TrEMBL record:
It comes from the Bacteria. Signal peptide: none annotated. InterPro entries: ArsR-like_HTH (IPR011991), HTH_ArsR_DNA-bd_dom (IPR001845), Metal_resp_trans_reg (IPR051011), WH-like_DNA-bd_sf (IPR036388), WH_DNA-bd_sf (IPR036390). This is ArsR family transcriptional regulator. It comes from Undibacter mobilis. Residues 1-95 form the HTH arsR-type domain. Keywords: DNA-binding, Transcription, Transcription regulation.
Length: 107
């Protein structure tokens, strides 16, 4: 993942309302949530929810799909795992991690 993409995604999740929206969609799993149910669940104004959903879609953290008259939102798990990997992949690359060093001493 490019650092600019990671920074944009982290910036989007830095807003408390967007983080709540994203967590609700992650919890919902693959079926996702209808926008109306998401709005009711989080008690957010429709215009506010729409604004935040657009931001999350712009950084590809969520997707939307229209099913007849209903708009379904889903977490983009590939993007989520990519971001988590970006943050963790180089853990302790320049030094021994404390947990790894502790395990080595025990063994």
């Amino acid at each position: 993942m490019k650092i600019d993409d990671a920074a944009a995604r982290l910036e989007a999740l830095g807003n408390p309302t967007r983080l709540q929206i994203y967590r609700a969609l992650v919890r919902a799993g693959d079926p996702g949530l209808a926008v109306g149910k998401l709005q009711a669940k989080l008690d957010v104004a429709a215009s506010t929810l729409s604004h935040h959903l657009k931001t999350l879609m712009a950084v590809e953290l969520i997707t939307q799909e229209r099913q007849t008259t209903t708009l379904i939102c889903r977490a983009n798990y590939k993007a989520m795992h990519g971001l988590i990997g970006f943050l963790a992949d180089e853990c302790c690359a320049d030094a021994a991690c404390a947990p790894a060093a502790a395990k080595a001493k025990v063994a």
